[in-house]
Amino acid sequence: MTNVLKYNPAMQFESVNKIIERSIRDYWELPSISNYKGATLFYKDVARKMEKLHILFEECGVQKGDRIAISSRNQANWAVSFFATLTYGAVPVPLLHEFKPGNVHHLVNHSESKILFVDEIIWEGLEIGEMPELQAVVQVNSLQIIYSAGRDIDILASDIEAAFESRFPQGVRPEDLNYHEDSAEELAVLNYTSGTSGFSKGVMIPYRALWSNIIFARDAVPQLKPGCKVVSMLPAAHMYGLMFEVFYEFTRGVHIYFLTRVPSPKIILQAMKEVRPDIVIAVPLIIEKVYKNTIKPVIEKSGAIRFLLKLPVLDQIVLKKIKNQICEAFGGNFEEVIIGGAALNKEVDNFFHKIGFPYTVGYGMTECAPIIGYAHWNVTKPYSCGKLAPNLEIMIDSPDPQNVPGEILVKGANVFLGYYRNPEATSASFTEDGWFRTGDMGVIDSEGFIFLRGRNKCMILGPSGQNIYPEEIEGVINNVRYVVDSLVIEDKGLMTALIYPDFAQAQADGLDAEALEKFLNEAVAEASKDLANYSRVKKIEIMPEDFERTPKKSIKRYLYQRQ
User: 504 Cβ partners below 8 Å, 6+ apart?
Assistant: First the structure.
């Protein structure tokens, strides 16, 4: 193992809950959280709701360090529930709202949660008898108690109101706040993954990791100031969305707008236009859909634009016009679009770079809460995912880290404590000397820029021992007309591309199923000519429905592998 890169200044840890406490006091009269097209909570409103929940926790016998699960779509009260749990000294357990009822039952039990916050839609599919250790269930939408194990619901609710009035006879004031003072190695969040491998693991995130990500964000996005706005479109139960659309913004006096429902590109762009956020946090699929659906068709159908783009003088005029149109589509008020969760399609990457669009691609994992790499849009390199974040060290397990991909290993403040009640998985994820094995393959150049090549587990061994990274092949295929997304697998020794096409567009263009398949076979073969022979796709299969996806919109690859 070579090429250790260190960026690890002396830590000066500060209690995260005291940061939250100070932020609420400082921004008391500012808007804090809104449901898009709905009600707005000011910081003082959030404080009042949190204190009532603290009393609920006391009445239910919740102790410091106990777990409290939250299973809900994004909404204002999701954030209230999360911050109330954290500042009480309990451990929030965010559960993705896409989890099936059986998964929710299992993870509530596995986490040993005492209380469950759940939205009304998810609650309809759950069975309280399957979660015997729960002391109470609270509906997120209303923050009303809907189940109590030991007391009558009405009496419990009445006792909470009476205790609140007694404790705060003049209402909650800034000077009344006194949240749990955490320590660096203390467990802060238990976050269950739902990735491409399919097996959910409870990632134990310490307070130092939250603190380190806050410190990173202060330096990375200084433009976010009190009164700024952000649209939360990613699942808050996932660390990427939680940290950079909710958590950090809450500590900076930023007004957060939750979309509250599954965000289609149409809804996202509508919200962006109305809210005009100061920063945009996104995953590649969203950005790629905007490019494919709104930009690329205009260029392809307009002979004039294609002609102008080839002219050396008028080229910049056209590019600036296109850039401005894209910026306006995202509200026109942001300084930067930060993309994370996966690599950006190279065609989109190239085009955005050419027009000077202010975007950057970062690198992170749930196990690092989540940040590992980032660089501002005007200094990053095409196809890279930035440089190493503060308070971390990185190492590439390769004899030639600048040219030969190796597994990326990291150490530092951001790295998790291990997997909850899973010592085997924890042990397998760390080297003997404490490096975390990310499972990602990549290289790092002489300037410290990180370039991902794919997942170690996804790598296919070629016929002569070549390392084949399907993600790179998929990037080529996804640029083919009518391809929405693709997945490359090995099937009986053949490199096979599973393709989900845009059936509606193909039909509109006069292609039936047979003609579409013929076109895709020919187009994929043509696109693959630039690949090494051993990486070329030999067979395609048309998928009748979209792939099943993770919250980051990555394909759940394990569902499509073949022996």
Answer: none
**Cross-strand partners of 461:** 467
Q: Using one digit for the tens of pLDDT, what is the confidence trace for 140-175?
A: 999 999 999 989 999 999 999 999 999 999 999 999
Determine the Cα–Cα distance for residues 86 and 68; give it in Å rounded to an integer.
9
Alpha-carbon torsion angle 231, 233, 239, 242, nearest 10: 40
Write out the H or E segment, with its range, that includes residue 488: strand 483-491
**CA quadruple 479, 234, 455, 444: dihedral sign:** positive
Contact assessment for residue 322 and residue 314, using Cβ atoms and an 8 Å cutoff:
no
Distance between CA atoms of 286 and 50, rounded to whole angstroms?
A: 33
- Exposure string of 335-349, with b = 16+ CB inside 10 Å and e = fewer, is ebbbbbbbbbbebbb
Length of the chain, in residues? 563
Name the DSSP letter for residue 124.
Answer: T
CATH 3.60.120.10 for domain 459-560: no
Please report which residue ranges of 60-126 form alpha helices under DSSP H: 76-88, 101-110, 120-123
The domain spans of the chain are: 459-560
**Which residues touch 181 (CB under 8 Å, ≥6 apart)?**
15, 17, 18
Segment 317-342 shows an average pLDDT of: 88
CB of 7 closer than 8 Å to CB of 388: yes
Distance of CA 12 to the CA centre of its chain: 27
- pTM score, two decimals? 0.86
- Among all chains, which residue has been given the structure tokens 């150049």? 445
